[in-house]
Amino acid sequence: MAEPVRYEVVDGIAVATLSNPPVNALSAALRAGLFDAVRRAEADPAVAGLVIAAEGRTFIAGADISEFGKPPASPTLAELVAALDGAAKPVVAAIHAAALGGGLEVAMACSWRVLGPKAKLGLPEVKLGLLPGSGGTQRAPRLMGAAAALRLMVAGEPLDADAAVAAGLADTVVLGDLVQAARGFAARPKPQPVSARDEGLGDRDAFEKEAAALAKRAATEPQIADCIACVRAAFEKPFAEAVAFERAAFLRLLDDPRSKALRHVFFAEREAARIAGLPKGTQPRPVARAAVLGSGTMGAGIAMCFANAGIPVRVIETDEAALARGMERIRGTYDSSVKRGSLSAETRDARLALIDGAVGLDATADADLVVEAVFEEMGLKKQIFGHLDRVTKPGTILASNTSYLDIDEMAAATSRPQDVLGMHFFSPANVMKLLEVVRAKHTSPEALATATEIGRKLAKVPVVVGVCHGFVGNRMLARRTQQAERLLLEGATPEQVDKALTDFGFRMGPFAMADLAGLDIGWRIRRATGKRAPVADALVEAERLGQKTRKGYYLYPEGSRTGVVDPEVTALIRRVAAQEGVEQREIGQEEILDRLVLPMVNEGARILEEGIAARPGDIDVVWLHGYNWPAWRGGPMHYADSVGLLHVVARLAAFAEATGDDTLLPADLLGRLAAEGRGFASLKAD
Ligand code: 3H9
Predict the structure, then answer these.
(1) Is 125 considered catalytic here?
(2) 8 A C-beta contact, residue 589 and residue 445
(3) Nearest CA, atom 18, ligand 1
(4) Backbone torsions φ then ψ of 281, nearest 5 degrees
């Protein structure tokens, strides 16, 4: 492998150029190379100063996250930063792109920070459940003031070049030759190191005010509380002691399951972007124009996704009246964003200009991608796919937004099954980030690559899944819904069930969610598929449809969207349980949570066994971005690993035995992994 640091001396200034693709993370080799460059520059009497520059798409993306948890290799980042801080000669960071986390900490230990116009400076560690652990909580406050530094850390978002200079975090923006300008700085006398600039901390009261405003976050996110404590230490402790205090906090957070989960999410999201089994060199097809069939809630939302990404899109309906309603729905959604102030009127107009409407499927003739979002009825879908096959160009991708129907059957209605796949958006489609890209039996690698690439352009997180009823997300959700209903029959109340999930970290429990969505939706699907859910059915039959009728699982007093407990529901559940012959009992919160979550994990294991998802991390990404699974819990499969698969298997087996429900019996894969003392994380794709 090429040396990660190139060292050269020209005209008495040394330049260390970092090259550690893809993002110049501070791996052991990069740290060693940079440490060595500092030593050489210090030892060489012919060198007046050192410039640190970098090649590639980032300056330095931070510590190498994949090394966390492994034994630290010397020189550590702390040692490297101390060497920069203590160097007798000036060191200049020439930052052409993002300097993040440990990357910014390296730069802050230099004498000056000289920026290219595309530089971005940030401390995103909180997003990984961490804090800057190499002096960042001490140097950023000395450069930009304690209050502003705290704001930068807890936001986790980088500043662009001009903002970084304005804040005092960097010295100048250079439009011309960045390294040349940095060399000029390196020839100057070394200024006082940042570590000694205590006057930079600024007003203590301003910092305390900022800290007080974070009280709510600090109560639930330990990294926020620690950021505050570390910056406060800058006022109260000598520099070296405050750095040791920061180090201890960093190591404590590194070991916290919440940070482990967030780091798992970081890698799972990036891994999900790689399609398992795709032949090397597969190229996506260009998509210049899209068409969306149907302009109901989903169709309208999907069309907006294309327009928001700057892709012209045609909305297609069966008649003029339906089309007018659909276009009005789209305009109304944009208008309310303008009213809320989240969108400018110009942007709304530019987006609306990208959307046109038409009646009839023949209007798909010039589209490169068609997304069908009509009723969930196989007969209708097959008819549509047959028609699309006749009127669209060769190579047009034909996608269905179905939530659970068989894509292979739709593909069979065409003469080009290789171009057919699922693109399953989540409601509201213009907001939720998940896109399940459903690979059918004959879907070609190009079609798959096109759908995932377009998903990324639409700012979605695409996850490739296989064909089955409900794909990954809804198939697992069905297990949770089934248990939630069953728990009511066995004696739990809707609020106990909801509370188990909100305490776990979800924003809403299943019953509050059902009331919001409307109970009639599930009821209609059950009627069509011959299924029943005795409690939910009884509620619908009593005309309790949720928030829209102001009563469902809860009661909604006039004007309120927050449900209150309704004794009528308690009585109704008791009556239904008696009819069903289910004996009611007190059920503890722990059992409720396990009954809701572990059957989902079990279904996830079956999904892996069947190859419907390629990796456990893909399932986690589906739940994080489609169903608001709390990120600090890492997703259902990571959660199962964190509680231990032996425990999961034992609980499921006990539930199966107690309820007589065989679907709760542990999946073979789950049993096997548990017996081998392994976790889902040990499984590798392909
Ligand atoms: C830290 O610094 C702690 C210190 O305070 C104290 C330590 C003692 N490490 O996102 P991309 C990989 S904590 C290892 O697709 P982009 C990534 O997995 C760190 N690997 O590219 C992917 O690999 P693959 C604070 C990393 O252009 C590839 O690089 N820093 C790291 O869309 C490309 O990534 C952060 O939290 C890393 N630090 O976005 C920044 N970063 O190709 C984290 C990336 O195998 N990184 N990889 O899938 C980012 O936010 C984005 O990666 C970045 C580039 C904006 C840099």
Answers:
(1) yes
(2) no
(3) 267
(4) 85, 0
What gap in Å lies between CA 511 and CA 489, rounded to an integer? 14
Q: Which atom of ligand 1 is nearest to the CA of 23?
A: 29
Task: Give distance in angstroms: CA of 533 to centre of ligand 1.
Answer: 46
Distance CA 450, CA 570 (A): 50
105 carries an active-site annotation:
yes
Count of C-beta atoms within a 10 Å radius of residue 176: 7
Which residues on neighbouring strands pair with residue 249, listed in sequence order? none
CB 292 within 8 A of CB 369: no
Query: pTM of the prediction?
Result: 0.94
On whether the CB atoms of residues 247 and 133 are closer than 8 A, the answer is yes
Q: What is the per-residue pLDDT across 9-42, written as a single tens digit (0 to 9) for each?
A: 999 999 999 999 999 999 999 999 999 999 999 9
Structure tokens, 373: 């979002």
CA of 527 to the centre of ligand 1 (A): 48
Active-site residue (options: 8, 42, 79, 105): 105
Query: d(Cα 518, Cα 540) in Å, to the nearest integer?
Result: 10
Cis previous bond, 71, omega within 30: no
* Dist. CA 616 → ligand 1 center (Å): 21
Site residues for ligand 1, CB cut-off 6 Å? 22-23, 25, 57-58, 61-66, 77, 98, 100-102, 105, 124-125, 128, 130, 132-134, 136, 267, 270
* Full strand arrangement of the beta sheet holding 112-115: 5-10, 13-18, 49-54, 91-95, 112-115, 172-173
Q: Report the complex ipTM.
A: 0.98
CA angle 277, 282, 287 (to 5 degrees): 120
Counting every residue written for the chain, the total comes to 686
Token pair of 108, please? 């802050």
Q: How far is the CA of 131 from the centre of ligand 1 (A)?
A: 15
Q: What is the CA radius of gyration of the chain?
A: 29
Residue 266 reports pLDDT greater than 90? yes
User: Tokens in use for 542?
Assistant: 């009593």
Q: What is the pLDDT of residue 685?
A: 52
Type of residue numbered 516: L
Reported as a single tens digit per residue, the pLDDT across 633-648 is 999 999 999 999 999 9
Where residue 364 falls (left for φ over 0; alpha for ψ -120 to 50; beta otherwise) is alpha
Q: What is the largest CA-CA distance in the chain?
A: 92
450-454 contacts at long range (C-beta below 8 A, 24 or more positions apart)? 450/284, 450/285, 450/287, 450/369, 450/397, 451/369, 451/397, 451/399, 451/421, 451/423, 452/273, 452/275, 452/284, 453/284, 454/284, 454/287, 454/290, 454/311, 454/369
Contact in structure between 649 and 633 (CB atoms under 8 Å): no
For residue 359, what are the β-bridge partners? 317
Query: Which atom of ligand 1 is the closest one to the Cα of 62?
Result: 2
CA atoms within 13 A on the CB side of 80: 29
The count of C-alpha atoms lying within 13 angstroms of the C-alpha of 540, restricted to the half-sphere facing its C-beta, is 17
- The pLDDT tens digits of the residues spanning 47-99 come to 999 999 999 999 999 999 999 988 889 999 999 999 999 999 999 999 999 99
